[in-house]
Design a protein that fits this description.
single chain, 356 residues, alpha/beta, eight-stranded mixed β-sheet, 13 helices, 12 strands, 49% helix, globular
Length: 356
């Protein structure tokens, strides 16, 4: 397989390493930093370093755009303009609405791997970075089904677990579980440093709770400024919610209301347990086969409907009819309850479906 990576930092470099080592792919790359390209070559992430986006994607079957969020719409556009007609183009940005809204090309599928590290740069890239990690995909009504399937299989090959989600839901959710924690980590370290230094105290050895809560503080501004701004409406709403909760617990503390404080703490423990229990698990695979018309967006419709219901597609395959008017999509679902839910949902969309 021929893969192009635009932006060879931590994520792009890890995609390149994983593709070469796990898929025996040929990888071309472009980065606006010549030194990053040379480091990628030296690390064995690239077969070929290119001087333009167009050169990198010219004969690619799949393109990964791994540049900062603020530049995604423009660079994805460059890649689509130069990529072959049968090439799937995706990105790895932490926010999805802007780049998805900017491109209705059938070859584009927005993406976001939930993987990373504290250290940026291709020197920290790893071929196992995506192992067992969720990789969100945001297909649209214009997405070509055969290209979505190619990308889905490719991500599995990189070790990831692709999951479909719509762009709006993705950004609201990430504001809660990723972007807000970065904001709070920054606030916590600055507050601790300011309080202790103002009092002339020597900074103490920090405990594990502080270290865990502030691990992501001060993440690279070149990446995170764009993330904060591109998702500012969802993030400000989450900050407002946090302020309201802090105000409530402040009032309980000021009033010395032990019962309210205990109830607040117990509710947090219950919420944490519920969130952890909601994490996806493994199980026996069940194959469903659905007959679908050959029209744009039908695969995206299936994937998004199942994703909204919390059903993860472990694998998929397309079998078009000889006249290309319709086809069968095979879906492998982990766990019998999820398979039953998927069967009901697919039938509810009006597609004939049965277990294989």
């Amino acid at each position: 397989m021929r893969i192009a990576v635009i932006g060879v930092g931590l994520i792009g470099g890890s995609v390149a390493l994983a593709a070469r080592e796990r898929l025996d792919a040929t990888v071309s790359g472009y980065d606006r930093s010549p030194s990053a390209l040379q480091q990628a070559l030296a690390r064995g992430a690239l077969d070929r370093a290119c001087v333009t986006v167009a050169e990198a994607v010219a004969d690619a079957q799949a393109v990964f755009v791994a540049v900062p969020v603020g530049g995604l719409p423009e660079v994805v556009g460059e890649a689509l303009a130069a990529a072959p007609r049968d090439c799937v183009v995706t990105d790895v940005g932490s926010t999805k609405r802007a780049v998805v809204a900017a491109h209705d090309d059938s070859r584009f599928v927005g993406g976001h791997p939930l993987a990373g590290a504290e250290n940026a740069g291709v020197e920290h890239a790893r071929p196992d970075l995506f192992e067992h990690s969720t990789w969100y995909l945001t297909p649209s009504s214009t997405t070509a089904g055969v290209l979505y399937e190619r990308l889905h299989r490719l991500l599995h090959g990189l070790g990831a677990q692709p999951t479909a989600i719509d762009a709006d839901t993705h950004d609201r959710m990430l504001a809660t579980v990723s972007h807000l924690p970065h904001v709070l980590a920054n606030v916590l370290v600055s507050q601790a440093a300011g309080t202790l230094q103002a009092g002339g105290e020597r900074l103490p050895a920090t405990g594990p709770s502080f270290r865990d809560a502030t691990r992501v503080a001060g993440a690279p501004s070149a990446i995170w400024t764009d993330i904060y701004l591109s998702n500012r409406d969802a993030l400000t709403a989450e900050i407002d919610g946090t302020l309201a909760r802090l105000t409530a617990i402040r009032a309980a503390l000021a009033a010395g209301d032990g019962a309210a404080i205990a109830a607040w703490n117990d509710a947090a423990a219950a919420d944490r347990k519920r969130l952890l229990e909601g994490q996806p698990g493994g199980g026996e695979l069940f194959e469903l086969r659905a007959s679908v018309p050959n029209r744009p967006g039908v695969i995206a419709q299936l994937a998004l409907e199942l994703g909204r219901a919390g059903v993860n597609i472990t694998d998929m395959a397309l079998y078009p009819a000889s006249d290309m008017s319709e086809g069968v999509v095979a879906l492998w679902i982990s766990g019998e309850p999820a398979a039953e839910r998927a069967e009901t949902l697919v039938a509810g969309l009006g597609f004939p479906v049965a277990r294989a």
